[in-house]
Amino acid sequence: MAAPQTSHARPSDSAGAAPGTLDDIRRVLADVETVVENVEALYYDFHEHPELSHHEVRTAAIVAEHLRRCGFQVVTGVGGHGVAGILRNGDGSVVAMRGDMDALPVEEKTGLKYASVARGVDPHGNDVPVMHACGHDVHTACLVGAAELLAKNRDAWSGTLLVIAQPAEEAVSGARSMMADGLYERTAMPDVLIGQHLAPARAGMVIHRAGALMAGAMNVNVEIPGVGGHGSQPQLTVDPIVIASSAVVRLQTIVSRELGPYIPAVVTVGAFHAGTRGNIIPDRAKLELSVRTFDANTGDRVLAAIERIVKAECMAGRAPRDPSVEKAESVPPLINDAEAVARVRAIQEPLLGDVFTAPFAVTGSEDVGLLAVPEDGPSIPVAFWLLGGVGRERWDRFEGPWIQRMQAGPGNHSPFFYADPQPTLRRGVEAMVSAALAYLCGDREAATRADA
Questions:
Q1: Is the same domain home to 270 and 173?
Q2: Given this model, what pLDDT does residue 444 score?
Q3: What burial class does residue 249 get, using C-beta atoms within 10 Å of its C-beta: 0-12 exposed, 13-18 middle, 19+ buried?
Q4: Does residue 155 sit in the same domain as residue 277?
Q5: Which residue, 161, 191, 229, 403, has most beta carbons within 10 Å?
Q6: What is the mean pLDDT of residues 256-276?
């Protein structure tokens, strides 16, 4: 789990927004129409041409070129295909805006005229369909649009803007790779980190939560040994498919029968690989699990339970040796800084409206929190929110409170998941720009008072 995120607050920080600050930000947001067309074009392009984790070559090149045109100093190839753009505009805070670029091995079934038919190669060497099924096309398009709008209106703010286009979020390795590759040493150390994630909420909604917003994630790979043979003679084999199937069922009891209803967690078996044809019993089966928890202790308990259950099933099934249970990629829970969230909300609520509070943390995960934990020095405050992407026509088909409606339609990672371009993209740009200016405009006012 990430270290507690301590505040980098400056003397001028305040949860409230001064009238002058609001007026300055309102003038910048009034200029949003000048970038909307470009943002829409980028969104359609990114959605139609998605790239898997660690393969974001085309997307990264497009982002880098747009940032250069806007006057940013651009660093490419950070932690793989990561892009960082920096725009220095006088004294003040360093605000980092982050978006992720990678897509998923999902076959799109939205029926959109710009739907993806792209193919890619997964980490196992398999040819797979590729789709932006988690909104990273929206994240990246809005990131570039926000950077453009802020660059056009640099007379309204003072400070440094750092734009981070991150690769490999779905592999939960992109943020860690960028940090290991000296992201901030090559650019600037942020005073605050902001970002957003598309959610199946009504387009226009901005949903905040101080403290824990998203769960930590841990991927676990399991290999169960067997003894292969002919499908007509199973008594001469040790069938790993039977053992693995029993394990899959038993793993479902970890949350319901060991943790209980007061400790939130998820254990999902998302992949089961075994065999090549129906008349051959294989000599191994492989499971890929995703675990979601909100603290390190619960994660340790779940991992220990997985190991115990898989070993017990192998013993019961006469496996020739112990199974392999390996913890693969992991990411800590995403913890929002309360002061940073309050400061951003103080700007967004009067200017945007449609600002909501998430009643509970979500079990989806994000590796953006790793960008807030530099190797040396205190953690960077994070303000990260959920952005609605379901247009009014689709939203009105659902009934009940908004939190209930969010679960009525296709969710993230579904082959049917997509954002209605407007007002999603406009609001995504407005949300990013207003959050950045919550710091950059305040510092400009403080500098002006000091000069006077």
A1: no
A2: 54
A3: exposed
A4: no
A5: 161
A6: 96
Q: Residue 123 sits in which domain range?
A: 19-215+333-451
How many domains would you assign to the chain?
2
- With 80 as the cut, is the pLDDT of residue 442 above it? no
The answer to whether the CB of 169 falls within 8 A of the CB of 365 is: no
**Are 389 and 438 part of one and the same domain?**
yes
* Burial class of residue 353 (count of CB atoms within 10 Å of its CB; 0-12, 13-18, 19+): exposed
Task: State the CATH number of the domain containing residue 231.
Answer: 3.30.70.360
**Is 83 within 8 Å of 66 (Cβ atoms)?**
no
Render pLDDT for 384-417 as a digit per residue (tens, 0 to 9).
999 999 999 999 999 999 999 999 999 999 999 9
Report the CATH number at residue 382: 3.40.630.10
